[in-house]
Design goal:
six-stranded parallel sheet, 14 strands, Rossmann fold, 9 helices, 2 domains, alpha/beta, binds nicotinamide-adenine-dinucleotide, L-2-Hydroxyisocaproate Dehydrogenase, Chain A, domain 2, 43% helix, three-stranded antiparallel sheet
């Protein structure tokens, strides 16, 4: 990231990709945005549409439909491309098809000479991030996924609502797979600097611990509920991606629950999962190891074990 222009190449201009692009534009979060999609006409149309909004924004972003050569001097390549599940198709078959999609993307990105940070949103995001790292051969610190950043934002929003406290003053994380095996380590959840569980105990039943379990279930099922109502989720993830991008471009060292490669942390190896990580200009600087209790460690282990098994199954 040597030049002064903040350049992003976005691959996959569907709902998620374009929500990300729209949020980038509105938050003036980069200087140059290149759109790539297998459907070139779509990428071109999306670039035109965004450009026509420039006059109403405070941004001078350069936006255009491009190709993989444009990755050579990009700071970030964000991948939101993917194929949808066919009727009757198994999860692993879908994964294999998405791995092929990624093969057609990551190869040309690397051939361009790209040396920035990969940011992956395509689901199952922990697996697709690992696939990207494997296919690219890039230092794993520079290959990150959106992980449980959106789930964590949902958790903070719901806890803030429950306690009537600004979500920015709630410190709590969703960890593990972005999916069914994710969990909330409640021993590490704080309102201001006070543990949530202590807060519950001290308020004489007004704020109840069993409600915390209900909230973590609601966080887990949120995507499904949105999909049932409107077929897909995209605004929240688009904004989560911009948050990660800001941490990268601003060299912020912000702690976000991105999908990062665990290499001994929490006793886990060779697996990408959502864990609090310090994010800066070079991607993930390090993973923060929270003092999880034994039950929480075992839930993280189960989640990682599941992800390792799935990754093995796709035989890259
Ligand atoms: P979509 O179908 O609207 O968009 C996918 C895009 O990928 C399409 O424009 C398609 O043309 C493009 N594409 C397919 N194959 C390609 C290839 N080989 N090269 C380049 N482009 C290609 O889907 P969407 O709603 O935008 O979702 C995208 C992905 O994001 C899905 O995998 C979805 O599950 C995931 N998602 C992740 C999160 C998260 O928290 N990480 C949240 C919501 C959605």
């Amino acid at each position: 990231m040597e030049n002064n222009t903040r350049k992003i190449v976005l691959v996959g201009t569907g709902f998620v990709g374009m929500s990300f692009a729209y949020a980038l534009l509105n938050q003036n979060a980069c200087d140059e945005l290149v759109l790539i999609d297998i459907d070139k006409k779509r990428a071109m149309g999306e670039a035109m549409d965004l450009n026509h909004g420039l006059a109403f924004s405070g941004s001078h972003m350069k936006i255009y439909a491009g190709d993989y050569d444009d990755c050579s001097d990009a700071d970030i390549v964000a991948i939101c491309a993917g194929v949808a599940q066919k009727p009757g198709e198994t999860r692993i078959d879908l994964l294999k098809r998405n791995a092929e999609v990624f093969r057609s993307i990551v190869g040309p990105v690397m051939n361009s000479g790209f040396a920035g940070v990969f940011l992956i949103a395509t689901n199952p995001v922990d697996i697709m991030t690992h696939v990207t790292q494997k296919l690219s051969g890039m230092d794993y610190h520079r290959v990150i996924g959106t992980g449980t950043t959106l789930d964590t934002a949902r958790l903070r929003y719901m806890l803030g609502d429950y306690f009537s406290v600004d979500p920015r003053n709630i410190h709590a994380y969703v960890m593990g797979e972005h999916g069914d095996s994710e969990f909330v380590p409640w021993s590490q959840a704080l309102v201001a600097t006070k543990p949530v569980l202590t807060h519950c105990a001290e308020t004489g039943g007004k704020f109840c611990c069993t409600e915390m379990e209900r909230i973590s279930e609601e966080v887990k099922n949120a995507a499904q509920k949105i999909i049932e109502a409107k077929k897909a989720t995209y605004y929240g993830i688009g904004m989560a991606m911009v948050r990660i991008v800001r941490a990268i471009f601003g060299n912020e060292n912000s702690i976000l629950t991105v999908s990062a490669m665990l290499n001994g942390e929490y006793g886990q190896h060779n697996v990408y999962a959502g864990v609090p990580s310090v994010v800066n200009r070079n991607g993930v600087r390090e993973i923060v190891q929270l003092s999880l209790n034994s039950e929480e460690l075992s839930r993280l282990h189960d989640s990682c074990e599941l992800l390792r098994g799935v990754f093995k199954g796709i035989e890259l």
